[in-house]
Design a protein that fits this description.
single chain, about 375 residues, alpha/beta, Rossmann fold, seven-stranded parallel sheet, six-stranded parallel sheet, about 40% helix, about 15% strand, globular
Length: about 375
C-alpha cells in the first residue's frame, strides 16, 4: 500500500518522497498501522526487508503529532558545554552493533529531514563528549548500543525517565552477544507504561520469554520464513583444497559482476585474507572487532561508494551490516552453523534482487555441506 494511506504528517511524507519510498514493503504495511495505535509488537523479519523504516515512520509520526502546539526545541551547539535539559528524550532504539546504530540514525535523519525532530547515535569506539552533550540536551530519539548507553547512565548523562517508546532491533543478536543484562538494566530505568516494539530475525524461545516480560499484550507479526534465505539467492559450493582457496578467490575477484562480501571465521583470518587480496591487486577492506571505529566506518563507506570491490568480514557484519546492492556473498570457510549461513547470505538477494552465495568447501567437508543443505532447506549446487 502507499505511504500516503496512513494519514502521515506532511513533513514526514516529504522525507519519505525524498528517499523515493512510494509503496510499503510487507513488514512496513504490517507494522506501521499497528504501531500508530500504540500497540506493543513482536515482529520477526530479516535485515533488508525494510524493518528500519517500519519503526522509524510511526516513531516520527507519534512525535510530530504530540508536538502540535508545543514550543520548538532549542538546538544545542555540539561544541557548547553540556547542560541538563528539562526536555527529556522520548524514544530509545537499542541495536546490537555500532554499524546498525549508525544506519538506523542515517535513515532517521533522512525521514525527519523536514521536521525539527532531533536524534543522536550513542555507540562505543568514539569519544563520549558529543554524545554526552546530545543526551543532556534531551534529544527526542536516542539510537544506542547497550554497552555505551550503560556507560552514559553510570555517568548520569542519560535520563530515560521520559521514554514513551522503546524499540529493540535485532533482539536475537543482542541476546547472542550477551547484552541482555544491560538491556534489562536499561529498561528498569524507563517508565513502566510505554510502547515497546521488538524486532528479531529469529524467534528463539528466550527472546519470546523476555518480550512477554516487558510488554503489554503484544501483537505478533511474522514476515517471510525465518529459517531460509531469500528465494532470489542462488547457492553454489566450490570444492577445493585448502591451499587453492586463495588463488580461486583472487581469480574470482579480478572479474566481479558487482560488490562482493567475503566472510572469514576469525578476526585474524579476515585481516590476513584482506592483506593477501590487497597484495594481489584486489581493492578490498576488512571489517572485524579489532578494527577501530574510524577504520570500520571507512571500510563500510568505501565499500558502499565503490572504492572497494570486496569487503572481508567476520560474523560481526552478518546481521548488523545493511548495504544494498551486494551481488555476491562468499564464505571463505564453511560457516559454523545453519543460522550463521542464513544470516551471512542474507546480505545479498535483498528487496527481490538476484543474489549469489558461494561457499568454499574442503573435500572432507562434503558431509557437513549436505547437513547444512538439509538444515537450511536450500539446494547448494
Amino acid at each position: 500500500m502507499p505511504f500516503t494511506a496512513f494519514g502521515l504528517d506532511a513533513r514526514l511524507l516529504e522525507g519519505i518522497r525524498d528517499l523515493n519510498f512510494t509503496e510499503t514493503r510487507p513488514i512496513q504495511s504490517a507494522v506501521i498501522p499497528l504501531a500508530l495505535t500504540g500497540a506493543d509488537l513482536i515482529a520477526c523479519a530479516e535485515t533488508g526487508t525494510g524493518k528500519t523504516c517500519a519503526f522509524v515512520v510511526p516513531t516520527l509520526q507519534k512525535i510530530l503529532t504530540a508536538d502540535i502546539g508545543r514550543p520548538p526545541r532549542v538546538i544545542v551547539d555540539p561544541a557548547s558545554k553540556p547542560v541538563p535539559s528539562d526536555r527529556k528524550s522520548r524514544v530509545l532504539v537499542l541495536a546490537p552493533t555500532r554499524e546498525l546504530a549508525v544506519q538506523i540514525e542515517d535513515e532517521m535523519h533522512g525521514l525527519a529531514y523536514h521536521t525539527a525532530v532531533t536524534s543522536a547515535a550513542v555507540y562505543g569506539g568514539v569519544e563520549m563528549g558529543m554524545q554526552e552533550r546530545a543526551l543532556r540536551a534531551g534529544v527526542d530519539i536516542i539510537v544506542a548500543t547497550p554497552g555505551r548507553l550503560m556507560d552514559h547512565m553510570r555517568q548520569q548523562n542519560a535520563d530515560l525517565s521520559g521514554v514513551e517508546l522503546l524499540v529493540l532491533d535485532e533482539a536475537d543478536r543482542m541476546m547472542d552477544m550477551g547484552f541482555w543484562p544491560d538491556v534489562q538494566r536499561i529498561i528498569s530505568a524507563m517508565p513502566g507504561r510505554r510502547q515497546t516494539l521488538l524486532f528479531s530475525a529469529t524467534m528463539a524461545d528466550e527472546v519470546v520469554r523476555f518480550a512477554l516480560e516487558i510488554m503489554r499484550d503484544p501483537k505478533y507479526i511474522q514476515v517471510g520464513h525465518r529459517s531460509k534465505p531469500a528465494r532470489t539467492i542462488t547457492h553454489r559450493a566450490v570444492v577445493t583444497a585448502a591451499a587453492a582457496k586463495l588463488d580461486w578467490l583472487i581469480a574470482y575477484l579480478r572479474k566481479p559482476e558487482g560488490p562482493v562480501l567475503v566472510f572469514s571465521r576469525t578476526k585474524i583470518g579476515a585481516e590476513r585474507l584482506a592483506r593477501r587480496l590487497a597484495a594481489a591487486g584486489i581493492k578490498c577492506a576488512s571489517l572485524h572487532a579489532d578494527r577501530t571505529q574510524d577504520q570500520r566506518r571507512m571500510a563500510v563507506e568505501g565499500f558502499k561508494g565503490g572504492r572497494y570491490t570486496a569487503l572481508v568480514a567476520t560474523d560481526i557484519a552478518a546481521r548488523g551490516l545493511d548495504i544494498d546492492g551486494i551481488h555476491t556473498v562468499i564464505n571463505f570457510e564453511l560457516p559454523d552453523s545453519p543460522d550463521a549461513y542464513v544470516h551471512r547470505v542474507g546480505r545479498t538477494g535483498r528487496a527481490d534482487e538476484a543474489g549469489r552465495a558461494i561457499t568454499l568447501v574442503l573435500p572432507d567437508e562434503r558431509h557437513a555441506l549436505t547437513l547444512l543443505e538439509k538444515a537450511v532447506g536450500v539446494r547448494i549446487e
